[in-house]
Amino acid sequence: MEYTVIDIETMPNEEMIDKLPEPTVALGNLKDEAKIQAKIEEAKQKQIDSMALNPLYGKIACIGYGERVVVKEAEDELIEEIVTEVLSKMAPICTYNGIGFDIPFIYKRALILGVKISPPMSFWMKRYVTTPHCDLMQVWGNWRDYEKMDNVAKVLLGHGKVDFDVTTIKDLIKTEEGKSKIAEYCKRDLEVTKLLFDKMNGVLF
């Protein structure tokens, strides 16, 4: 059975910074106004740093499927492409943590942006099966334990992922050279996921 490997890269949606909720800050017995303000600012910065992981405040910068990688600032076009070329065909897909991240992120961003998407998200979220969606992190962890892909790849394949600071995506996407770096990182993730699939196939599923 042929599986299409999917991976996405995300970044903060800077237009949503002012819509972040007020952070909860544990001040304890702190009385110094300057130190209190510093704690609040630190909490706000942590919120901003994690925006890329939340579909309410982050956005998709890159999608990879099969051997194709696309980097665009037009997020709706990225989602439309993955729907048209992969998801709507309902053929088997493979991810690493796609149940926990990639698939929900794609569907929730589609909902927010008003992009038509089918089949429904639940089609890809079945537990304890590897069709139509083989999530290698779930397979490796028995749908219970969660190991980073880099850790698994270093042991099973002898090498991990490419060293890349994902927080730079929001700046890299502004130039063609930067887009190429994002694409190369995503392509490498696709390759490692495919190698892990081939390694586990026939043994773990």
Care to describe what's here?
This protein has 205 residues and is of the alpha/beta class. The chain has one domain: Ribonuclease H-like superfamily/Ribonuclease H (Nucleotidyltransferase, domain 5), CATH 3.30.420.10. The chain is built from 7 helices and 5 strands. It has helices at 33-49, 75-85, 98-113, 136-140, 149-156, 169-172, 176-200, and strands spanning 4-12, 58-65, 68-71, 93-95, 133-135. It has a 5-stranded mixed β-sheet, with helices on both faces. Helix 5 (149-156) packs across helix 7. The protein starts with a strand and ends in a 5-residue tail after the last helix. The model has no long low-confidence stretch (mean pLDDT 94).
Provide a count of the helices. Answer: 7
CATH superfamily name? Ribonuclease H-like superfamily/Ribonuclease H
Strand line-up of the largest beta sheet = 3-2-1-4-5
What's the number of structural domains? 1
* Helix/strand order, N-terminal first: EHEEHEHEHHHH
Mean pLDDT: 94
Task: Choose one word for the global shape.
Answer: globular
pLDDT < 50 runs, ≥5 residues: none
Q: Assembly type of the shown chains?
A: single chain
Could you say which structural class the secondary elements and strand pairing correspond to?
alpha/beta
What does the main sheet amount to? 5 strands, mixed
